[in-house]
From TrEMBL:
This is Amine oxidase. Pfam families: Cu_amine_oxid (PF01179), Cu_amine_oxidN2 (PF02727), Cu_amine_oxidN3 (PF02728). Residues 161-258 form the Copper amine oxidase N3-terminal domain. Gene3D superfamilies: 3.10.450.40, Copper amine oxidase, catalytic domain (2.70.98.20). Its EC number is 1.4.3.-. It comes from Spizaetus tyrannus. Belongs to the copper/topaquinone oxidase family.
Length: 753
């Protein structure tokens, strides 16, 4: 053997020894607890959920360019369009018909063409109107069709259009000109020349179809705080129906309980000492009512939620998957969050779950407050869902998603990081039991949920929209209200309408009513509505017949028509109400999902009100109807400015059709009455101001599906609970060392206003 051969053998031997040592050292060692692990569920969607995906900015641009080149009329950018101009008001996804989508998703059919819905205001026409076009196919449009009459059974009158930002700017300019007619009054009452006063719109805008006259409420404005708590007692009524801005006029003035024909008349009354003036000094930054600036220096950081081995959910495009759940998510710029094709363990539970409307209805002894019925969809629930603050609005390590919209502009806008997705540890067992008899053991499961969240700021209020998916197969929908209360100037018998919360501020009572559409497909499209509730039967006890007992029994009923399935607000409703499949589970019961509502709603507007039909969805805490493609939403953005002749009246959906073994939709209303009080300053807190509903499996499975959860815990008295192999909770101490590398805090929410 020569030297060269010996050296080669020696190197090989050393390499072998090194490899064996490595194997011995690592044998039995678990992989690093801090190493990110891929989610257990692989996404097999293959892009099918893109059929529900919101439009991309590029698609929006293509639609705008197509309309500009193919309608044969001049279009002015909506951001500067006068009422007498033609403009593109908005562009959004046209969701395909359900039958087409299901053929594609379930039947191997063709992908439906991708289309957009474009809303145009035609003010420069002999017959001004609102027209809606479906434009497609995307990404390269080649056709458009007018769907207005098909959707609304007639043309949409021009006066129903939502007020644009440009219209508000022109109104503000008019108000400023009028305020200059009362300089001495303003200097005395408010230490102002009017230019530093904030102006807040109200709605609706009149008392009959065709009206467009709005009360505007004036407040002191202070940089860095909400002006909503600082009314000065002055409100003005502006007539802005005419398409010629120069013909708009201020019709009436209200101050401290009195009405005047104009600011000039008000000034004359002041000069003649015929007016009682309440002097309200200009607020000072260090003592302004409603300031949110911290009053104490920061303390130590609070608890931090993080995933030791990375997120256990997976996001691909517009679909998120998590421990058996699969959800397609999106955002309608008007009505807000919308979810589609919600599946659990591969089975579709819900085809569509979407917010429809948010109503805020006020009371006051000032004209602006007593008139106000905000229908927030007409302002833009999705459009005004701004960037979320990392670590406060959502957990710091949540996944943040951008949303895009095109409204009142020919250029798409992006609300970056405006939707968040995260796994939430509720710090509560989903289920548990400690056995202290016969055998000794403990079993349980943490309540971890997947949360999809967005927050909309609609003038003064902030609505937190949550959609939560539980390991038990339940879906939870929840909304919290926070932000600033709206207020009126305190005068006369003001406390008949709320509580005093500042020197001259009345926190005005109001109600929040929220409406949702839930298109359940429980074990297929064909479902029936079944109710169950309790009753007592007095009977002789059967073993001796000498005594009576009140025996509790279950009362079951199948509701066969829509009229029977429309439950008026604040009236008794069966405690168990379920969408039932014709197919049984293992134990012979219909596979079902139960609707469970948590709400403290105020009273609905009286049926005698001329605008009640526009919010007739609010009559019902729950109404179940047959699903129809021509009834996609319970309201319309056009209802706000013409509630007396509503474009969509939900009450018409309920026409007593049969609902047995049909494709059904549940329309759910939740809400609460809010009487503002001192603790609503500076902001209303979310505690106690949350309402919503659950969709819970009811005999849908053969047992609780969470038994398959990898997070389950079980150990007995015969096991060493301190051992990681016997009890996963014992594995947590090493995982606690896996502190995440947090991204630097950034916020760009002020950049796109």
């Amino acid at each position: 053997m020569n030297v060269k051969t010996a050296l080669i053998l020696l190197v090989l031997a050393l390499a072998t020894i090194f490899a064996l040592v490595c194997v011995l050292l690592t044998r039995g060692r678990a992989p690093s607890t801090c190493q990110d692990q891929p989610p257990e569920q692989e996404d097999t969607d293959d892009g099918q959920s893109l059929v529900f995906a919101d439009l991309t900015p590029e698609e929006m641009v293509q639609v705008v360019q197509y309309l500009q080149g193919n309608l044969g009329v001049q279009l002015v950018d909506a951001s500067r369009a006068k009422p007498s101009d033609n403009c593109i008001a908005s562009v959004d996804l046209q969701v395909p018909a359900k039958a087409e989508v299901l053929r594609f998703l379930d039947g191997g059919g063709a992908r439906p063409p991708r289309e957009a819905l474009a809303v145009l205001y035609f003010g420069n026409q002999p017959d001004p109107n609102i027209t809606e076009y479906v434009v497609g196919p995307l990404p390269t449009p080649a056709y458009h069709r007018d769907v207005t009459v098909q959707k609304y059974r007639g043309k949409v009158p021009y006066h129903r259009r939502p007020v644009t930002g440009k219209e508000y700017m022109d109104i503000n300019a008019l108000i400023q000109r009028e305020l200059r007619k009362a300089p001495r009054f303003l200097a005395t009452c408010c230490e102002s020349d009017g230019t530093d006063l904030a102006i807040l719109t109200t709605a609706p805008r009149g008392f009959k179809s065709g009206d467009r006259a709005t009360w505007f409420v004036l407040f002191h404005s202070m940089a860095g705080t909400g002006y909503y708590l600082l009314p000065v007692g002055l409100e003005v009524l502006v007539e802005h129906r005419d398409l010629r801005v120069s013909h708009w006029q201020l019709r009436q003035v209200f101050y401290n309980g009195r009405y005047f024909a104009s600011m000039g008349v008000l000034e004359e009354a002041f000069v003649a000492s015929l007016l009682e003036v309440v002097r309200i000094p200009k607020p000072q930054a260090e003592a302004v009512l409603g300031s949110m600036r911290p009053q104490r220096p920061p303390g130590s950081p609070g608890p931090l939620q993080y995933e030791p081995q990375g997120p256990r959910y997976s996001i691909r495009g517009n679909r998120v998957t998590f421990q058996g759940w699969s959800i397609a998510f999106g955002m309608n710029p008007n009505s807000g969050p919308r979810l589609f094709d919600i599946r659990y363990r591969g089975e579709r539970i819900v085809y569509e779950l979407s917010l429809q409307e948010a109503l805020a209805l006020y009371g006051s002894n000032c004209p602006g407050g007593m008139l106000t019925r905000y229908l927030d969809g007409s302002f833009g629930i999705g459009r005004f869902a701004y960037e979320l603050v990392r670590g406060l609005d959502c957990p710091y390590t949540a996944t943040y998603v951008d949303r895009h919209y095109l409204a009142e502009s020919e250029t798409p806008k992006t609300n970056q990081n405006s939707l968040c997705i995260f796994e939430h540890d509720a710090a509560l067992p989903l289920r548990r039991h400690f056995s202290d008899s016969q055998s000794l053991y403990y079993g349980g499961l943490r309540k971890n949920t997947l949360v999809i969240r967005a927050i909309s700021t609609l003038i003064n209020y902030d609505y937190i929209w949550d959609f939560m998916f539980h390991g038990s197969g339940a879906v939870e929908v929840r909304v919290h209200a926070t932000g600033y209360i709206s207020s009126s100037f305190l005068h006369g018998q003001g406390t008949d309408y709320g509580n005093r919360v500042g020197p001259h501020t009345l926190g005005t009572m109001h109600l929040h009513h929220i409406h949702y559409k839930v298109d359940l497909d429980v074990d297929g499209q064909l479902n029936s509505l079944e109710t169950q509730d309790m009753a007592y039967k007095i009977m002789k006890e059967p073993w001796s017949m000498q005594n009576t007992i009140e025996r509790l029994y279950l009362r079951r009923e199948r509701l066969e028509r829509e009229d029977k399935a429309a439950f008026l607000l604040n009236t008794p409703m069966p405690r168990y109400l379920s969408f039932a499949s014709p197919n049984p589970n293992k134990w012979g019961h219909p596979r079902s999902y139960r609707i469970q509502i948590t709400s403290f709603a105020g009273e609905h507007l009286p049926a005698s009100s001329p605008m009640e039909r526009s919010i007739s969805w609010g009559r019902y805490q729950l109404a179940v109807t047959r699903r129809k493609e021509e009834e996609p939403t319970s309201t319309s953005i056009y209802n706000q400015n013409d509630p007396w002749t509503p474009t969509v009246a939900f009450a018409d959906f309920i026409d007593n059709e049969t609902i047995t073994n049909e494709d059904l939709v549940a329309w759910i209303s939740v809400g609460f009455l809010h009487v503002p009080h001192a603790e609503d300053v500076p902001n209303t807190v979310t505690v106690g101001n949350g309402v919503g509903f659950f969709l819970r499996p009811y005999n849908y499975f053969d047992e609780d599906p969470s038994v398959d959860s990898p997070d389950s815990i079980y150990f007995s008295s015969e096991q060493d609970a301190r051992a990681c192999g016997a009890n996963p909770l014992a594995c947590l101490p090493p995982a606690a060392a896996c502190a995440p590398h947090l991204p630097p805090f950034r916020y760009g929410g002020f950049l796109n206003l």
